[in-house]
Amino acid sequence: MSPSKIQKSETCNITLVGQEVVYTLIRRNRKTIGLIVNRAGLIVRVPLHATSNSIEQVLRRKAAWVISKLDVWKEKKFIYPVWEQDSQFWLLGEPYRLVMTASNSLQMMPRSEQIHKMEPAPEIQLTPQQIEPFVMAWYREQALVYMRERVIGYASQLGVPMPKLRLSNARTRWGSCSSSGAVCLNWRLIQLPATLVDYVVAHELAHLIEMNHSAAFWEVVEGIYPDYRQARSALKKIG
Predict the structure, then answer these.
(1) Does the residue 115 lie in any domain?
(2) Which of 9, 10, 111, 229 sits most deeply, having the most CB atoms within 10 A of its CB?
(3) Cα(210)–Cα(212) distance, integer angstroms
(4) SS3 181
(5) Consecutive H or E run containing 98
(6) Which CDD domains match (predicted)?
């Protein structure tokens, strides 16, 4: 790797406008400090030898801008993962990270776990083409295990047979239930908090009894998921 592309990254935090902000700090050969807020959160790119004080000054000067941008992304963070090495990958509402073991194999770990011996070496930079298939396989495996368990549970509560279950990649629907009794759930659900996943599962299985959105249907949903109104509202905010 050429010197101009050398970079080191770490996870940091700072309090801005009374809020604790976790951000990714990337040091590389550049002359200025740059701030980016996207689906991965706040990313701060700085010169290799920038001091902590200079970085903090910029963040505090831009505090209002940072908070406003983070608020925009807050409710949409789960929808589409960012295939970057420093990204957060959400599982049931908890952030995970991509790490590399001593044997150079990839592994997903909770973001809160600080196991330095498993951090990617600074000189190893993974491409989106390397990250996406690994993370997607992990997501689908987790989704099938968790969603099947929840489908079994809600089917039992409703007294209906276990339906056929498959994952979808739909862009506009969290789930669906066919007239033949097959249930389709969006794999992206596995990124959301468990309460929202359960709501979608309960919603779709209720269609096995009421294939509509009538008052009778919502009574079935409420019978197995009493807080459906709050969950429904939360999903609308996410998108």
Answers:
(1) no
(2) 9
(3) 6
(4) coil
(5) strand 94-100
(6) M48_yhfN_like
CATH code for the domain in which residue 219 is found: 3.30.2010.10
User: For residue 43, what are the domain limits?
Assistant: 1-74
Angle between helices 52-61 and 63-74 (to 10 degrees): 70
Which residue carries 């990649």 as its tokens?
A: 169
For 73, the 3-state DSSP assignment is helix
Amino acid at 110: P
Q: Which residue has the tokens 């009894």?
A: 209
The token pair that represents 162 in the structure block: 């276990």
Model confidence pLDDT, tens digit, residues 52-108: 999 999 999 999 999 988 887 776 667 778 888 778 899 998 889 888 776 778 888
**Two tokens, residue 163:** 């339906």
